[in-house]
Amino acid sequence: MMKRLSFPLTVLIFGYAFLYIPIFSMIAYSFNKSSLATTWGGFSLRWYGVLFENSQAFDALMLSIRIALVSATFATALGTCAGIALYRFRSFRGRRLFSGMIAAPLVMPEVITGLSLLLFFISLENLIGWPAGRGVDTITIAHITFSMAFVAIVVQARLAGQDNSLEEAAQDLGARPFRVLVDITLPLLAPAMIAGWLLAFTLSFDDLVISSFVSGPGANTLPMYIFSKVKLGVKPDINALATIIVALVTIGVVVAMRLMTRKDGGKKPG
Question: Is 94 left (phi over 0), alpha (psi -120 to 50) or beta?
């Protein structure tokens, strides 16, 4: 048994090593005193001070959070409606086309999506005068467009594994479809909607390619800011910024795991 597990275990260890060793190296070099990102010059918090004095990085962070909050909220609302329509109404005309349009952003290269949205916004501006250039609005709309497909898939998967007996019982008792949707369907879909919202927020906050196509002057998101800095050479303050993001993500994961552990621990075996 050990011989059978030795090779997969070795592959697993090397896989995680390639993933996490660069991250740990980046964290270590964020405390580097030297101005050279890859040359150790001693321990120092110098670059964290430089980062906190950088107003451009802070503005890019706030813009990314604002866009991600708005786009995730709208994407969750639209994606939930799309997921319910795909699962509940299986025989309406054009369902296959609609299903294909929902799945297309999942497999479409981001370069193609970004270019098509750029051409769409330019054509729209020439026709009706809106949007007046590219900026925060176009980035938000673009993020809603591709992230709502992920929400729709999550919601549809939740509906496929959900017991419909409560909804059928409510309908037998005389509840109207809208009341069944509000009182039963949506509460049951709440975990999937929360998961979809978090996924849409992460996709929006992390997006670089599509944002680069549809952004304009004064609308630099955090990934765009980091990428523009890296093109000129990696600086230790970028390592510090990335380390803070890793720390926040780690805290979020630990808190989520703690909450899940408490929830599971509170359940008594049947």
Answer: left
Q: Domain of 195?
A: 59-88+95-244
- Gap between the Cα atoms of 165 and 163, Å rounded: 6
Angle between helices 222-231 and 236-265 (to 10 degrees): 140
Distance CA 61, CA 37 (A): 22
Mind listing the pLDDT tens digit for each residue in 199-228? 999 999 999 999 999 998 888 999 999 898
Residue-wise pLDDT tens digits, 170-199: 777 787 878 888 888 888 888 899 989 999
CATH number, domain at 193? Answer: 1.10.3720.10
Environment class of 133 (CB within 10 Å of its CB; exposed 0-12, middle 13-18, buried 19+): middle
CA distance 182 to 195: 19
